């Protein structure tokens, strides 16, 4: 069975074996074209994706009545480097594929990308809202499909971007809320008795604003006890189908930083390192090269999974329902809010939190201003 394309064709040689054949773009000097062929193995979707890759690499795609499906367009987009030239992370590709599989493929899967209209997308967004999908989640779906069509336009795979004319629901993000100093202290005291390692994680997150991925990626060589500094350059992600990966920080090189560490926190870190030293002594071995600060193994050769601290902290909260609950993300908001409360300007707060955009830091400024406004209103009422 043979399927022909204007720029190539598929000849099936067996159930999951096909021969691809395309004509290249004309040579700029001679004007001649040559034929490129390739044997591939896989199902229909995988074979069509490989044909599309060959067309992008060698041929000049024709977009008149383009035969590129939305499924293929999304895959091309996810395989394309970002605008800054960096490869998309495995976790980012996994999240976008999941959004497509859950919210777009049931309706548009297999459809030609050029046949989808702005009205169809708008009506589909309305259906997602009626199904109780949060507006912000719908906006993420819209952003993905908009970017995929934009990438397709740039590569001659589609003739228009219907997402640019589709109506997407707006979403007003709530101002960040952070636990109080008293709440954080109360939980830290309890954790210091029941789970010292988790207590140290809480202290690092609250005191330095570390992200969870950065926390589990910390290694002892990132710490300089003499200078009293900690270097933040990487994180760890766990992606289904890919596994554990060491990556740059969430905001890339922009998020790298060398942060000061005070004496109390250095003391806690020293005690954590003593645990590693004792484990190595008990086993009669040397401390491994490049060990992690937090690890499920005695010699700290592997890190915790990124969701392990979250689960441990959740179990602690369930054991203490009398105290206000908090998460690691709340502790980052706590760090941001306390920085702003001390009077730090926007640039200083953004540098401490390592936000790529100052607009992200502004959310915390707004939250603090609202708290101050509420306090001032109560003071005024008290005067009366």
How would you describe the overall organization of this protein?
With 384 residues, this protein is α+β, with helices and mostly antiparallel strands. It has a domain at 181-325: hpI Integrase, Chain A (Orthogonal Bundle), CATH 1.10.443. Helix content is 49%, strand content 12%. The chain contains 14 helices and 9 strands. A 4-stranded antiparallel beta sheet has the order 1-2-3-4, covered by helices on one side. Strands 5-6-9 form a 3-stranded antiparallel beta sheet, with no helix packed on it. A hairpin with a 3-residue loop joins strand 7 (234-239) and strand 8 (243-248). The N and C termini lie far apart (87 Å). Mean pLDDT is 84; it is low at 1-6.
List keywords for this structure.
three-stranded antiparallel beta sheet; hpI Integrase, Chain A; four-stranded antiparallel beta sheet; 384 residues; 9 strands; alpha+beta; 14 helices
Write the layout of secondary structure elements.
Elements: E1 2-5, E2 8-14, E3 17-23, E4 35-41, H1 44-58, H2 70-79, H3 90-103, H4 105-108, H5 118-130, H6 135-154, H7 181-194, H8 196-208, H9 212-217, E5 223-224, E6 229-232, E7 234-239, E8 243-248, E9 257-260, H10 263-283, H11 308-319, H12 328-341, H13 346-353, H14 358-383
Antiparallel strand pairs: 1-2, 2-3, 3-4, 5-6, 6-9, 7-8
Helix pairs in contact: 2-3, 2-6, 7-8, 8-10, 8-12, 12-13, 12-14, 13-14
């Amino acid at each position: 069975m043979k399927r022909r394309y204007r720029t190539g064709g598929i000849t099936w040689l067996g159930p999951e074996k096909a021969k691809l054949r395309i004509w290249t773009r004309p040579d700029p000097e001679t004007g001649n074209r040559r034929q490129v062929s390739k044997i591939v193995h896989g199902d229909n979707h995988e074979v069509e994706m490989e044909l599309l890759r060959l067309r992008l690499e060698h041929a000049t795609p024709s977009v008149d009545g383009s035969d590129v499906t939305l499924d293929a367009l999304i895959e091309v987009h996810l395989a394309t480097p970002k605008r800054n030239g960096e490869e998309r992370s495995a976790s980012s590709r996994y999240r976008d594929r999941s959004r497509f599989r859950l919210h777009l493929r049931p309706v548009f899967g297999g459809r030609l990308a050029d046949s989808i209209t702005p009205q169809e997308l708008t009506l589909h967004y309305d259906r997602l809202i009626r199904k109780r999908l949060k507006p912000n989640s719908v906006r993420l779906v819209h952003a993905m499909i908009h970017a995929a069509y934009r990438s397709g336009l740039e590569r001659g795979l589609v003739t228009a971007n219907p997402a640019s004319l589709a109506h997407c629901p707006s979403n007003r993000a709530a101002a960040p809320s952070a636990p109080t100093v008293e709440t954080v202290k109360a939980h830290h005291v309890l954790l210091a008795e029941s789970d010292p390692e988790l207590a140290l994680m809480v202290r690092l997150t609250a005191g330095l604003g570390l992200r969870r991925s950065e926390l589990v990626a910390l290694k002892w060589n990132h710490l300089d006890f003499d200078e009293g500094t900690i270097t933040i350059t990487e994180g760890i992600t766990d992606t289904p189908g890919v596994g554990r990966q060491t990556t740059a920080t969430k905001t890339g090189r922009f998020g790298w930083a060398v942060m000061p560490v005070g004496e109390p926190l250095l003391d806690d870190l020293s005690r954590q390192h003593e645990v590693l030293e004792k484990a190595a002594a008990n086993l009669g071995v040397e401390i491994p090269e490049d060990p992690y600060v937090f690890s499920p193994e005695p010699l700290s050769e592997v890190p915790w999974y990124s969701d392990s601290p979250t689960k441990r902290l959740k179990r602690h909260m369930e054991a203490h329902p009398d105290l206000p609950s908090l998460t690691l993300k709340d502790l980052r908001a706590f760090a941001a809010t306390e920085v702003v409360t001390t009077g730090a300007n926007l640039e200083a707060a953004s540098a401490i939190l390592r936000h790529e955009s100052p607009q992200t830091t502004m959310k915390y400024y707004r939250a603090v201003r609202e708290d101050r406004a509420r306090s001032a209103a109560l003071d005024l009422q008290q005067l009366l």
